[in-house]
Specification:
Length: 334
């Protein structure tokens, strides 16, 4: 974007978003590549975009004339819908493509699909793919900005960012927070991105789950590892439950889902082990009665629907920043 275009885009968004000196990245393929300052820039920008969704007319012209293409090669409800709405609320032209309606079903490679779409000159490509590293591959071969909407069991950066925003709203600061992530850690891209994000922001992370669903050498991630779910939840400020990723090889190795719920599910009784002001989170989709009780999911400590609302704001912020919003007051990025 030119300096004039940056100033014009800046004038169309809430005023508290201005005068940010941090330069944003060219792509968002994972949390690992982001600095703490870049993460905070996304969260701060998202806070202001939350206000847009509360207006009578839920739209700003910040990305008018920009084109966003969503490539979803895996099923998705929350992520795909929120990226579509995020782009439209920023006034971008949005086109969504799913695997079932793309030429992938005819044998076209990901690279050929990307090259053909790029020939139509999109500005941002948002992709979910079953293969780890697919988003990085796309970024290496495309000039458009690339957003990773989930790549295999690798990363899901916008989920971690919306979770961080939700935690910050509830707790204020990350320093000294104990965040327990429970469930299928080994196959979860959400867990991986959250661990990276929360540790960069200063939180202490503990993970727990069945031994077969914990990654090998998990301690190398910089987290506390517990085989006992009760020990992990004890004293936690945030309890984040994850479903078993059956589609990515997760295996209960238990007689039934009822047995899993008994041993590892979050019940009201088990939640009493956490701090009195502890909050409950889940990235969805939930399996009620398997990893979380309905009374907990719908209870007063649950922030699950707040996560969904924040997902829209975070994705608006990411699209805006990738389109040049992060270049404000940075002549080298103009």
């Amino acid at each position: 974007m030119t300096g004039e275009q940056v100033a014009e885009a800046e004038s169309r968004v809430p005023s508290g978003e201005r005068s940010v000196p941090v330069q944003f990245a060219a792509n968002l393929t994972g949390i690992a590549a982001l600095s703490k300052e870049q993460i905070e820039l996304i969260l701060d920008t998202a806070e202001h975009f939350r206000e847009v969704s509360q207006r009578p007319i839920k739209k700003v012209p910040a990305l008018r004339g920009k084109t966003v293409v969503n490539l979803f090669f895996e099923p998705s409800t929350r992520t795909r819908t929120s990226f579509e709405i995020a782009g439209k609320r920023l006034s971008a032209d949005v086109q969504s493509v799913s695997a079932s309606t793309s030429s992938v079903v005819k044998g076209e490679t990901l690279l050929d699909t990307a090259r053909n779409i790029e020939a139509m000159a999109p500005d941002i490509l948002v992709m979910r793919h079953k293969s780890a590293g697919a988003a990085d591959f796309l970024a290496r071969h495309c000039s458009a900005a690339v957003v990773n909407a989930g790549d295999g069991a690798h990363e899901h950066p916008t989920q971690a960012l919306l979770d961080a925003l939700t935690i910050r709203q509830a707790k204020g600061d990350f320093a000294g927070l104990r965040v327990a992530i429970v469930g299928d850690i080994a196959h979860s891209r959400v867990a991986r991105s959250n661990i990276l994000c929360l540790r960069k922001l200063g939180a202490d992370v503990v993970i727990a789950g069945p031994p077969t669903l914990l990654p090998l050498r998990a301690e190398a991630l910089g987290v506390e590892v517990q085989r006992d779910v009760n020990a992990a939840i004890a004293g936690a400020d945030v309890v984040m439950m994850l479903r078993v990723q059956v589609e990515r090889g997760g295996n209960l190795n238990l007689p039934s889902t009822q047995e899993y719920f008994k041993l590892f599910g979050l019940t009201e009784e088990r939640l009493k082990l956490a701090n009195d002001a502890a909050v409950v989170m889940h990235p969805g989709p939930m399996n009620r009665g398997v990893e979380i009780a309905s009374s907990v999911a719908d209870g007063p400590r649950s922030l699950i629907l707040e996560q969904v609302s924040n997902g829209l704001a975070v994705r608006m912020a990411v699209l805006y920043l990738l389109a040049g919003g992060g270049a404000r007051n940075d002549e080298s990025a103009a």
